[in-house]
Amino acid sequence: MKRRVFFISDRTGITAEMLGASLLTQFPDIEFQRTNIPFVTNTLAAQSAVATITKAANESDAPPLVFSTLTDPDVQHIIATSSPYVFDLFGTFIEPLEAALDRESSHTAGRMHGIGDANVYERRVHALNFTLGHDDGLSPRSLNEADIVLLGVSRCGKTPTCLYLAMHYSLKAANYPLTDDDFDDQRLPKILMPARDKLYGLTIVPEQLSRIRRERRPQGKYATLPQCRAEVSQAEAMFRADNIQFIDTTTVSIEEIAATIVRDMQLH
Fold first, then answer.
1. Among residues 73, 101, 129, which one ends one of the domains?
2. Interior angle at CA 41, CA 37 and CA 45, nearest 5
3. Which of 101, 126, 143 is the last residue of a domain?
4. Which partner from 62, 87, 134, 155 sits 20 to 30 angstroms from 127, CA to CA?
5. Residue 187: phi, psi to the nearest 5?
6. Beta 173-178 vs 148-153: how paired, if at all?
7. DSSP letter at 107?
8. 61 in the same domain as 157
9. pLDDT over 90 (residue 178)
10. Are 74 and 132 part of one and the same domain?
11. Which domain range does residue 205 map to?
12. Can you give the pLDDT at residue 257?
């Protein structure tokens, strides 16, 4: 079964898509075809969005689902005409919150994803710049400046996790790839000692690692299952010997990996 889904917002649409997608995960037997329509800030844009949704409805067997985080009541009223199934994710909660807080909401668009607090925004940008400059073992001599340093063999998920930690938690996240040279002494590389209390390990099932590596470099020893098994085994042995917390990333999303790291390392 397939169903068209639209996410409508007066800003980026990130919130609408995130909340709506979370709800849709409860229906795994349906294939959702998703469309994000951001920056619906006036009635003209709302009418254009309705036209797009109506066209999709005419081409489908069932009315589209529409998730909205619009703050302007007039604009939301127009979007409400687009489908029998419009879910007003903000309106559902704003009125009860106004009653609970005994205040009217500002109905201001983009409060969540705007720059807002300039200091918070600058911290995020600084964290991203640091993370990009310390990816895959770059600038190892300044690892002590990191908030977190991820360790693991090549292609176990270090880079995307670091970028997520920087973007969503404003953490300066570095990562260091463990290679055969690091396993020769069966001891933690000396270059990592200044950041010893910031280390966290990532591991992965060797079979999955081999599949991922074959997509990148199908020839040679790098992607073979024996090589992957040896590297993963030695990395996990290093983590245990040096009492470094680690997580298996095989079936865990980037979001969950990052949240687990923040919890385990008590990063705030």
1. 101
2. 60
3. 101
4. 155
5. -135, 160
6. parallel
7. -
8. no
9. yes
10. no
11. 118-264
12. 97
> Contact 33/54 with Cβ under 8 angstroms?
no
Q: Span 237-242, mean pLDDT?
A: 96
CATH number, domain of 53, equals 3.40.50
**Closest by alpha carbon to 200, among 233, 238, 164?**
238
**Do residues 125 and 63 share a domain?**
no
Per-residue confidence at 116, pLDDT binned at 50, 70, 90?
low
111 pLDDT above the threshold of 70? no
How many of the other CB atoms lie within 10 Å of CB of 219? Answer: 7
> Is pLDDT at 186 greater than 80 in this prediction?
no
Backbone φ and ψ for 41, nearest 5 degrees, come out as: -105, -5
Identity at 198, one-letter amino acid code: K
Residue 130 to residue 145: CA distance in whole angstroms: 9
189, pLDDT greater than 80? yes
Is the same domain home to 152 and 245? yes
Same domain for 56 and 151?
no
On whether residue 14 sits in a domain, the answer given is yes
Q: Which H or E run contains 212?
A: helix 206-216
- What are the Cα distances from residue 221, in Å, to 41, 114, 202, 207, 218? 55, 47, 22, 14, 9
Distance CA 139, CA 168 (A): 23
- The contacts of residue 236 (CB under 8 Å, 6+ apart) are 201, 203, 246
Question: What pLDDT is stored for residue 265 in this prediction?
Answer: 97
Judgement on whether residues 236 and 178 belong to the same structural domain of the protein:
yes
